[in-house]
Design brief:
Layout (H helix, E strand, L loop, with lengths): L8 H30 L2 H25 L5 H30 L6 H30 L4 H27 L6 H35 L1
Helix pairs in contact: 1-2, 1-3, 1-4, 2-3, 3-6, 4-5, 4-6, 5-6
Organism: Methanocaldococcus vulcanius (strain ATCC 700851 / DSM 12094 / M7) (Methanococcus vulcanius)
InterPro entries: DUF47 (IPR002727), PhoU-like_sf (IPR038078), Put_Phosphate_transp_reg (IPR018445)
Family: Belongs to the UPF0111 family.
């Protein structure tokens, strides 16, 4: 694999900023888990701050892209940054929706969300590995498969376990039900964004292979 251009500072900055977005998403996931246990307002404020920092990193990536990479790779890298920005948006929205709930999730929903968040953390770590392979060389297909397998597992949890459970869940009002559904959608959507980023990076890998 020809990876000579990853030795230039402009290209390395783009890859490092994408890696930084992943690290901020991982931190955001840990904070969301903690916020669901504590409802600590300081944690919520920290999640919102991370999302704002993600916006700035995304802007930096877009500006630097003009000076880095071959033109036919810019679209994929710009899209990757946008999708990672979406993961931080989803984390923020999930936390803000949870703030509106007057009661915590019951044990079943809490366990299912915990499983989804754990798998999502694994997906982000595999996404970091994708960046490492693109930058340093290696075989990408097994790592992409790990990401896709986990995304399917989360879809299965959502469609065959959570969704069926929600149908029979007693709620006090329309808005309580909507907030619960919107929270879960935001958490589940993160795995879709990760898979989409992996697909964009896979295209770049094929360009330089």
């Amino acid at each position: 694999m020809s990876i000579f251009f990853f030795e230039r500072n402009s290209e390395k900055n783009i890859i490092n900023n994408l890696r930084l977005m992943i690290q901020k998403s991982l931190k955001g996931l840990e904070l969301l888990k903690y916020y669901m246990k504590t409802r600590d307002k300081k944690i919520l404020a920290e999640i919102i701050k991370i999302e704002e920092e993600g916006d700035e990193i995304t802007k930096t990536i877009r500006i630097n892209l003009e000076e880095a990479f071959l033109p036919n790779m810019r679209r994929e890298l710009s899209r990757s940054a946008e999708l990672l920005d979406e993961t931080l948006d989803s984390l923020k929205h999930a936390a803000m929706l949870y703030e509106l709930l007057k009661t915590d999730f019951d044990e079943y929903l809490n366990n299912e969300i915990t499983i989804i968040l754990k798998i999502t953390v694994e997906m982000f770590k595999y996404l970091e590995e994708v960046l490492n392979i693109i930058e340093n060389g290696g075989t990408l297909d097994p790592t992409i498969k790990e990401i896709k397998d986990r995304e399917k597992f989360i879809d299965d949890i959502y469609q065959n376990r959570i969704y069926k459970y929600l149908i029979n869940l007693e709620v006090k009002s329309f808005w309580e039900g909507k907030i619960i559904c919107d929270f879960i959608d935001n958490v589940v959507n993160i795995s879709d964004y990760i898979e989409d980023v992996a697909d964009e990076l896979h295209i770049i890998y094929l360009h330089i292979k």
